Amino acid sequence: MLREIITPQSDEYMIHIPKEYINTKVEILVLPFAEVKEEKK
Known about the structure:
The protein is largely without helices or strands. The protein is elongated and about 50 Å long.
């Protein structure tokens, strides 16, 4: 499994697909990332 959190600088992004995923079904998602801020006690 691959996971990468980025801040895109344009509307295009190129990914490298590992050889073990070639000829298999993969799911690619683009979702906004919600940061969780910790409260100070």
